Amino acid sequence: MKKINNLTEKYSKENIIIHWFTAVLILILFPLGKYMETIPTKDKMNLIIVHIILGGIVFFLTLFRSYLFFTTSRPKDLITGSKFNDKLAIWIHNSFYFLLIGISIAGILTMFYGGYINAIKSEAPTLILKKDNITALKAHSVLAVIMIFLLMLHVLGVIKHYFLTKENTLKRIS
User: Fold this and answer.
1) What is the pLDDT of residues 34-91, one digit of tens each?
2) For the chain: N or C, fewer Cβ within 10 A?
3) Residue 169 carries which DSSP code?
């Protein structure tokens, strides 16, 4: 198949940096969160603090990237040769913004309503509620799993596009 997209159109430097920095942080945060689910609360207090800090960075970067989405020019959406795939790619890209903001808000609510803030301040892990009693934590976990699923679809889409159209679409975001 011949090349069908203009890969000389690139995202802004700010978007590129935020994209890759956020991707790295997500690849740290997700396994860290899953690991923390398996260990006793008293053993994960320092990891919780790291998770809060890294998650906060992702939240603020996502808010800034959302601002850039509306205020800077960006390349045209990729054409895949399939209207369904074209719409799916746009939907996945846009869903990342909503998911990352939703995950962050659920994480913030978890910190307050799950007793994490008080536990960290007083260094008393016993103040943290059992995870089954923290609705926001359930939402945080579900949204994180959905985000990882979409991330895998995103990567598969890049690979599929590379092999079907022989286009290195990563040029637009690097």
Assistant:
1) 999 999 988 999 999 999 999 999 999 999 999 999 999 899 988 877 889 889 989 9
2) N
3) G
Torsion sign (Cα): 18, 169, 96, 141: negative
Q: Which residue has the higher pLDDT, 112 or 42?
A: 112
Three-state SS at 103: helix
CA distance 9 to 22: 21
Distance of CA 39 to the CA centre of its chain: 24
DSSP letter for 2, please: -
Distances from the Cα of 38 to the Cα of 28, 58, 90, angstroms: 16, 23, 35
Q: How far is CA 125 from CA 12, 24, 46, 117, 150, in A?
A: 43, 29, 11, 10, 33
**DSSP letter assigned to residue 75:** P
- Rounded Cα distance, 119 and 20, in Å: 33
Q: Which residues of 129-150 are buried (b: 16+ CB within 10 A; e: fewer)?
A: eeeeebebbebbbebbeebbeb
Triad 34, 39, 43: Cα angle to 5°: 120
